[in-house]
Design a protein that fits this description.
Elements (H helix, E strand, L loop, with lengths): L9 E11 L2 E9 L9 E2 L2 E3 L5 H13 L8 E10 L7 E8 L14 E8 L9 H12 L3 E5 L15 E4 L11 H11 L2 E6 L9 E6 L4 E6 L3 H12 L12 E5 L4 E5 L4 E2 L7 H19 L19 H8 L7 H13 L6 E3 L9 E3 L5 E3 L7 E3 L15 H11 L3 E2 H25 L2 H16 L8 E2 L19
Helix pairs in contact: 5-8, 6-9, 7-9, 9-10
Length: 485
């Protein structure tokens, strides 16, 4: 113990937040005149006098912006322990969030400030005081405490190449992001993360975050629910995905012990729930068909044995056991009949598949290009495996079926149609069971719609088919496997 008591100045900073066109916006002022950091943007702030920190931020807000803030509307945001460049004295900064006030912000002290504007919190201005930027970055990351100690020769202005911010998250809580181990893994891969946004699907074991870095980059961090999905996704991202020239994400880092990956963001808007005109839908589904064809044309991995199990048929009993209490009369018999018909054709040739090709995993780019995400179910399977979850959109829309297969470049063979019907049947009973257990009503209803098609015998009208008409097998269909186009 040195016996020297540590004393530091205390200052307060206002984070005034309003809703803007691009999301939350914060109020900043530009320092001017004979003051520290003149010409740099900064949050309204000041020193604490003989008062509480809450009273101080209320007073400084009025003195600098003219806004009247009720102390009851002041919310703690983050505390930053800071040391300025040049070997200056350390200080403690209390940053407070305020979302309600009276009045309109204006420059009240023109000798200290020459501008005052609202900025999207995701697009802060430059040049900006690094200390203030550190506080706002910590606020966005949800950290209650942060350290920001400059090196002596650091600039006063924020410079992403000189990042001194260290976030301290609350005890017993991971904050808005994942646990500490996944956080550390992600930051070793891409640098300091300033914002974690949970974008997981509202279902069991989905763990995905959209992250933003201190220098403005964007990535996705995903923790797989099991080792199999982690192995499949990393193999796809290292193997066939890069060959498609930007149609999917790029793998930045992977950790098999955490079952975690960091991948680049893919440009585009999710097709899940997107409202399109009929003509736009036809264009999109033709593009999806073309994308599926590119995936299926990918070279097989050198480790591939050339054979795979006969679709999901070896798991039929397990699927039926799980769904039987939820099925309607006759559903099980129709599923078994569809599988028996497919078995009569023998196995299909395996190709590289996405494994979960459906609108929620597809993005529409500004240039009209369709791209994909989420390849944790990718494996060598018959090509019809990738048609299973697209077909639901063809119900009553033969124009979409024709567009899809036009993009794909060829119709189905009889053998492929039989295997597709069987695959859809099993996917349906599996979806009904899993969706009921996981509280996913969309998955349940998709399964029930598919089983209803089996009842009517309509399957999917409009899906073009090559009529081989050989003798034997199922009436009207030829035995034998379907090969590559």
């Amino acid at each position: 113990m040195s016996g020297v008591r540590h004393t530091v100045p205390v200052d307060v900073h206002l984070i005034a937040v309003r809703d803007g066109e691009q999301g939350p916006e914060v109020l900043l002022s530009r320092r001017a005149g004979d003051v520290y950091a003149s010409g740099l943007w900064h949050a309204p702030s000041g020193h604490v006098e003989r008062e509480t920190v809450v009273d101080a931020v209320v007073r400084e807000t009025l003195e600098e912006t003219g806004l009247v803030v009720d102390p009851e509307d002041v919310r703690a945001a983050v505390v930053v322990h800071h040391r300025p460049p040049g070997g200056g004295r350390e200080r403690i900064g209390f940053f407070f969030e305020v979302r309600r006030w009276q009045g309109t912000p204006r420059v009240v002290e023109p000798d200290k400030c020459d501008a005052m504007e609202w900025f999207p919190i995701t697009a802060l201005p430059e040049p900006m005081v690094a200390y203030c930027r550190a506080g706002l970055d910590a606020y966005r990351a949800g950290a209650p405490v942060a350290l920001h100690f400059h090196a002596p020769d650091d600039p006063i202005a924020h410079d992403p190449r000189v990042d001194r911010l260290r976030l301290l998250h609350g005890a017993g809580a991971a904050g808005p992001g994942p646990e500490a181990g996944v956080r550390d893994f992600a930051e070793r891969a891409v640098g300091r993360v300033t914002a974690w946004t949970d974008v997981s699907w509202a279902r069991e074991n989905s763990r995905v975050w959209h992250v933003r870095g201190a220098a403005g980059g964007e990535w996705f961090v995903k923790v797989h629910q099991n080792e199999k999905f982690h192995r499949r996704e990393t193999a796809a991202l290292r193997g066939w995905v890069p060959r498609l020239g930007g149609a999917g994400p790029r793998l930045v880092a992977a950790d098999p012990d955490l079952r975690a990956v960091v991948v680049t963001a893919v440009e585009g808007r999710s097709l899940h729930g997107m409202v399109l005109t009929g003509a736009e839908e036809r264009v999109v589904f033709e593009a999806i068909g073309a994308l599926a064809a590119r995936i299926h044309a990918s070279p097989l991995p050198t480790t591939a044995s050339g054979t795979v199990p006969l679709g999901p048929y070896d798991r039929m009993e397990r699927h039926l056991d799980g769904a039987r209490p939820l099925l309607e009369s006759g559903d099980e018999e129709r599923v078994r009949s569809a599988v028996a018909a497919a078995r009569g054709f023998g196995p299909l040739v395996p190709v590289v598949t996405h494994g979960d090709l459906q609108p929620r995993n597809l993005l529409l780019g500004a240039d009209g290009t369709v791209r994909f995400i989420d390849v944790e179910r990718s494996e060598l399977q018959p090509r019809v495996r990738d048609f299973v979850r697209v077909l639901d959109h063809f119900d009553g829309r033969e124009d979409l079926a024709r567009a899809f297969f036009a993009g794909y470049g060829r119709p189905l063979t009889d053998a492929e149609e039989a295997h597709l019907v069987a695959s859809v049947a099993l996917d349906s009973v599996s979806g009904i069971a899993f969706g009921t257990r996981a509280g996913d009503p969309e998955l349940v209803e998709r399964g029930r719609r598919a089983l209803a098609r089996l009842l009517t015998g309509s399957t999917w009208p409009g899906c073009p088919r090559t009529d081989t008409r050989a003798a034997g097998g199922v009436p009207g269909r030829s035995p034998g496997g379907g090969g590559r186009p």
